[in-house]
Please model this.
Amino acid sequence: MEGQTFCPYKGLCDYYDIGEASRAAWSYRDAYEEVGRIGGMVSFEPDQVEVRLDGKLLEPEPGQKVVAHGVDRGLEADEAGSA
Model:
């Protein structure tokens, strides 16, 4: 794991490096109950890594696009208690 941030809507977010790609993946392992369906899933930065499933390159579906927004509010996990 390579850092955490806090989102008031989803909870703590863990970031992961993949090879040379810094923070190329992230997960809300223990997402809040209201968004629990994302808990334990992993998301990847498509401009940093290729993701393949059963040998097939995963790409956004037609009409989908990736909107860069940076880490959640830039709030580090250890700051969450003081927010």
